[in-house]
Specification:
six-stranded mixed sheet; binds adenosine-5'-triphosphate; binds magnesium ion; about 300 residues; alpha/beta; 12 strands
Length: about 300
């Protein structure tokens, strides 16, 4: 990805829009026949041409706009994530990071733009359930595990899915499924605590259990919103190790404020959001020394 300092386009007035971002994936102008179009409306079913040319795009978001009562939370946002890529998204409070995840998971409908998950699923024409079933798993900031159930039961329940009678499902678990649960328990370091009620696990362990529950669905894309918020330094180190293990097996988008953590897990591209738009994309060193990024973070620590 390259960033050029050029005159701002006429419709953009903020100082940071002086920076034109050229993404390292497609450079073709978007297909006007996909997405919601500039005035919203019914989404079209044809995948964007850029996706046809670049086969390995897992997530394609182009020119997305979202307003809440006239306030532009997402502003012409374009972002591509390749298969098996781990992408960190950073940005000051209110930049639109959680809203971005809401759009991907179908919780928030944009006013305009295109959003595809692989070439098969138009996210803007799909509901939350269909999006989750297609392989997008989301972890919220606050861990949501079943506190009265054990760690093992939480994983079994996640594997069973919502429409299954759990007791029947447990009785019929195949050897392969049991292995998968065992491997996941080991991966999230809860093998020895499998019989402990989730409510009695530490804050970090609850987070890992929730990640384990997402893994039970074999997601192609994992969305993690502030996964290390409130964790101890040791728990953060363990989460770094967990993400290194998951890297390359799933597409992963991580939103996080903890820059040390981001540096520890980041692959070559980190995306900086500011005022609902991509302000910069690039390597961690590049991002942290970028004047517009530093300016956007003024008043917050970008260490
Ligand atoms: N449902 C909503 N209604 C009105 N405004 C909203 C809604 N959701 C988000 N916003 C506003 O949109 C902007 C972006 O919010 P968002 O939660 O996406 O930011 P964020 O980057 O996740 O911030 P943080 O780092 O604090 O979590 C904020 O100004 C927020 O107040
Ligand atoms: Mg947020």
């Amino acid at each position: 990805m390259r960033i050029y300092a050029t005159p701002a386009s006429p419709e953009k007035k903020t100082s940071e829009s002086q920076i034109v971002i050229v993404h390292d994936l497609p450079d073709e102008s978007p297909d006007p026949h996909v997405g919601l179009g500039s005035r919203g409306g019914r989404p079209r079913s044809r995948p964007p041409k850029t996706m046809e040319r670049y086969q390995r795009i897992l997530l394609y978001l182009e020119k997305i706009n979202v307003s809440f009562d006239g306030f532009k939370a997402i502003n012409d946002l374009t972002l591509y994530i390749k298969e098996d890529e781990l992408r960190c998204v950073i940005g000051p409070n209110g930049a639109g990071k959680t809203t971005l995840m809401d759009i991907i998971t179908g919780k928030t409908r944009p006013d305009s733009g295109s959003a595809w998950f692989t070439r098969d699923l138009n996210l803007l024409a799909s509901d939350e359930v269909a999006i989750a079933q297609a392989g997008i798993g989301r972890k919220f900031q606050k861990p949501s595990v079943f506190e009265a159930l054990t760690a093992l039961e939480n994983l079994e329940l996640a594997l069973a899915g919502p429409k299954t009678v759990w007791k029947t499902f447990r009785a019929r678990l195949s050897g392969e499924e049991r292995d998968f649960i065992e491997k996941t328990l080991a991966r999230i370091e809860l093998s020895d605590l499998r019989a402990r009620r989730a409510g009695l696990l530490s804050h970090g362990q609850k987070h890992w259990l929730e990640i384990g529950m997402l893994l039970m669905q074999r997601p192609r894309l994992l969305l993690l919103d502030e996964p290390v918020a409130g964790m101890t330094p040791r728990e953060i180190d363990r989460t770094v190790a967990l993400l290194h293990e998951l890297k390359g097996k799933h597409g992963i988008m991580v939103v996080e404020h903890d820059m040390e953590f981001v540096r520890a897990i980041a692959q070559k591209t980190v995306t900086v959001l500011h005022q609902g738009a991509v302000l910069a994309e690039g390597g961690m060193d590049y991002i942290q020394s970028h004047p517009a990024v530093i300016e956007a973070y003024l008043g917050e620590a970008l260490c």
